[in-house]
User: Which sequence fits this backbone?
């Protein structure tokens, strides 16, 4: 009798506990299919820092994300991946791959008629061709001040570019690479100390090692021109440390030569 009672109690507890355990273990539901969720996660892993520190991993993640976006017919996701792939291929010098992805990006951007994506695709095309007419065409469709500033900088109109962003530096975290590019080029041509220092900080935020070295080198040169030799030496030494870490022996020798002349 007692054994039957124990079995009855165990059965009752099991009936209550099993659904509870299953309910607790169940993953949260989402209205998006798993493949789309995974594509978004892969794309989100590709930050500016990843592009500079692990370009091959960034390429692999974007190509996988592009495949998944294509499977579920997510056109905007495909477009973003193509554009990001183009930027990386331009950076790595693989222009054939860049052109192939750009052709697909442009086709989707023109179909969606999204101003920001059209701007991106036109700018990347101009960077690949190097034609002034292509940059001028991009300037006409630039959706905001920083985008216009970037194109103006490519057109060597650095003063106009700087005026557009001079009062918007507090927004630099929204587009650090673009702001850094505009500020660095302006500082380089106008020997502007503050712009060079801000560019350096932005390059650091996105792990742009070559940009960091360039900005440090520029700051050394500007300080020499201003007669601040002790400060210039410190910037030269910092630039040299970055260049050596990059493995650029030719540039390291050139900086060492400049430093020895101080």
Assistant:
């Amino acid at each position: 009798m007692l054994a039957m009672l124990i079995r009855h109690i165990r059965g009752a507890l099991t009936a209550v506990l099993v659904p509870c355990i299953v309910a607790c273990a169940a993953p949260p539901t989402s209205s998006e299919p798993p493949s789309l969720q995974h594509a978004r996660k892969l794309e989100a892993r590709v930050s500016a820092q990843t592009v500079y520190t692990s370009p091959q991993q960034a390429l692999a993640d974007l190509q996988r994300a592009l495949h998944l976006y294509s499977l579920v017919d997510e056109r905007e996701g495909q477009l973003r991946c193509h554009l990001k792939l183009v930027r990386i291929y331009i950076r790595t010098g693989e222009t054939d791959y860049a052109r192939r992805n750009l052709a697909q990006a442009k086709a989707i951007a023109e179909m969606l008629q999204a101003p920001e994506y059209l701007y991106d695709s036109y700018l990347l095309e101009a960077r690949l061709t190097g034609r002034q007419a292509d940059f001028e065409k991009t300037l006409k469709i630039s959706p905001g001040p920083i985008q216009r500033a970037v194109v103006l900088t490519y057109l060597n109109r650095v003063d106009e570019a700087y005026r557009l962003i001079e009062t918007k530096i507090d927004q630099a975290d929204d587009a650090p690479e673009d702001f850094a590019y505009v500020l660095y080029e302006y500082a380089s041509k106008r020997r502007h100390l503050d712009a060079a220092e801000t560019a350096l900080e932005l390059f650091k935020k996105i792990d742009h090692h070559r940009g960091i070295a360039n900005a440090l080198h520029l700051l050394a040169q500007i300080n020499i021109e201003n007669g601040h030799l002790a400060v210039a030496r410190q910037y030269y030494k910092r630039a040299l440390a970055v260049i050596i870490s990059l493995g650029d022996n030719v540039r390291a020798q050139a900086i060492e030569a400049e430093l020895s002349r101080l």
